Automatic annotation (TrEMBL):
Gene3D superfamilies per the UniProt record, alphabetical: 3.30.465.10, 3.40.462.20, Uridine Diphospho-n-acetylenolpyruvylglucosamine Reductase, domain 2
Organism: Lucifera butyrica
Residue ranges annotated for the FAD-binding PCMH-type domain, each copy included: 31-202
Taxon lineage: Bacteria, Bacillati, Bacillota, Negativicutes, Veillonellales
Name of this chain's protein: FAD-binding PCMH-type domain-containing protein
Domain of life: Bacteria
One Pfam family cited in the UniProt record for this chain: BBE
Similarity section: Belongs to the oxygen-dependent FAD-linked oxidoreductase family.
Length: 441
């Protein structure tokens, strides 16, 4: 450290500091990594100093925001973690219809701040996910089919590049960097310090929840997959297939319209099987945010997934059901998220987010508590992923999976080549790198 000209600034946590254990924790507690230092940046200058310090000390870097990377790509052993989570202010320019959001914001406080002004952005459902990782990889949630992906609402970014310089990108200036920041994945080109988003007025929404018993699972999957991606785009929905032991399947969704219209739109779904519960109600948008916040806090998990471009055949659905019958953990599940609508109106090459034509995406979810449960669950989810490969096309960069060998194709399809060019321009020395980062060559 003595050979460095640049001093670290911000809140700096070293391994012998009392806050180190908390500072190194990842949302996925399957991982336990020991960085050389963690810098909680409070100003843009702290980010610049940290990048320069890392270069001068030949220390590998990871950018971090909400700590939700599935493969813990935002933390590392013996390197520097440049954490932006203490830069989380929101500046609304309501007349312009935009908000400048610092790169460390997390979703629930952000939604609450915007809701107080009667607006929102179409982000994800988990309250603690960070705006940075979510936006840079795409970002979908319960408003996606009407308002697009979060990255489709991104208008500009400010980023510290590999030389420690502040770079601005919008439609006119460094437009290639803005293109890459719309779905090219976090951690690849530099450390983003703020985003400018288009905001949308929001008030009440209509929401639904339907539950069926396990024997209806096949019929419900068949009906949902031909309905959810094509129904009125003001309705975004999810379907959750639980294990046979848990014994149920459920669907829920959010509609930007009246309750009676939603009742009407739901008819094909409520006619499938014998629903044991159908609930439709109108609530303030912020209550819907809390309703869909699902899932536990930090825990051990291995999730992966796949885009579905064409309705799954009977054989494919039988494969899903088989894996839910033999699941080693009762709490494992498969979650289907409807897409199309606004997502498909943008051509795949227009932004780095490639999978615009998919009907929906499936997430294979496994979680456990004790270490001896890890191996059976990880094997199960990998076998499930492999067994479904012949029916699906690619997956989401924000659900990275270290087992995917041809990840450039799976995450980015034909857009990978352009991403390499952007990488070469903004980080030719590959300072920002990790197991599945975009390479400059
Ligand atoms: C419980 C849970 C729920 C989720 N729900 C959704 C959902 O509803 N919709 C959805 O689309 N996705 C969802 N995801 C996936 C989520 O989008 C990704 O995990 C995302 O990468 C998390 O971003 P983060 O900032 O929280 O994580 P981090 O681990 O901090 O970062 C993720 C990646 O971005 C990089 N990064 C972080 N900050 C910056 C920065 N300032 N500049 C450049 N790179 C940076 C990191 O280096 C890392 O590679 C969910 C994930 C979890 C664990």
């Amino acid at each position: 450290m003595a050979d460095s000209n640049t001093r670290l600034t911000g809140r700096i946590v070293f391994p012998d500091d009392p806050g180190y254990e908390k500072a190194r924790m990842d949302f996925n507690t399957r991982f336990s990594k020991y960085p050389r230092v963690i810098v909680f940046c409070q100003r843009v200058q702290d980010v610049i100093n940290a990048v320069k310090w890392a270069r001068e000390n030949d220390t590998p870097i990871r950018a971090r925001c909400g700590r939700h990377s599935y493969e813990a790509f935002s933390i590392l052993n013996n390197g520097i973690v440049i954490d932006v989570s203490e830069m989380d202010r929101v500046f609304l320019e309501k007349r312009k219809g935009t908000a400048t959001i610092q790169a460390g914001a997390t979703l629930l406080p952000l939604y609450k701040a915007l809701w107080r002004k009667g607006v929102t952005i179409p982000g994800g459902t988990c309250p603690t996910v960070g705006i940075s990782g979510l936006t840079l990889g795409g970002g979908f949630g319960m408003l996606t089919r009407k308002m697009g992906l979060l990255c489709d609402n991104l208008m500009a970014i400010q980023m510290v590049n590999a030389k420690g310089e502040l770079v601005y990108a919008d439609r006119h200036v460094n437009s290639d960097l803005l293109w890459a920041s719309r779905g090219g994945g976090g951690g690849n080109f530099g450390i983003v310090t703020s985003f400018v988003f288009k905001v949308h007025p929001i008030s009440n929404v209509a929401v639904y929840n339907i539950t069926w018993d396990w024997p209806d699972a096949k019929e419900v999957v068949k009906v949902w997959q031909d309905w959810a991606p094509f129904v009125d785009e003001r309705l975004t929905s999810i379907l959750e297939l639980f294990t046979q032991k848990a014994g149920r399947i459920s669907s829920s969704g959010e509609f930007l319209g009246q309750e009676d219209q939603l009742q009407y739109l739901l008819k094909p779904l409520t006619a499938a099987g014998k629903p044991i519960q159908v609930k439709v109600q109108t609530i303030p948008y912020i209550e819907a945010v809390l309703k869909f916040d699902g899932g536990p806090g930090p825990h051990k998990f291995k999730n992966t997934g796949a885009y579905v471009y064409h309705s799954l055949s009977d054989a494919a659905i039988n494969t899903l059901l088989y894996y839910m019958e033999i699941s080693p953990g009762k709490d494992n599940s498969i979650q289907f998220q409807s897409l199309r609508g606004a997502v498909s109106k943008i051509p795949p090459a227009k932004t780095a987010y490639f999978h615009r034509e998919a009907n929906y995406i499936m997430q294979y979810i496994t979680q456990w508590k004790t270490d001896n449960e890890e191996s059976p669950n990880v094997c199960w989810v990998e076998k499930l992923r492999q067994s479904m490969l012949k029916y699906v096309d690619g997956t989401y960069v924000n659900w990275p999976d270290i087992f995917i060998k041809n990840w450039p194709c799976a995450y980015y399809g034909a857009n990978y080549r352009e991403l390499v060019k952007v990488k070469r321009k903004y980080d030719p020395e590959n300072l920002f790198h990790f197991a599945q980062s975009i390479r400059p060559d």
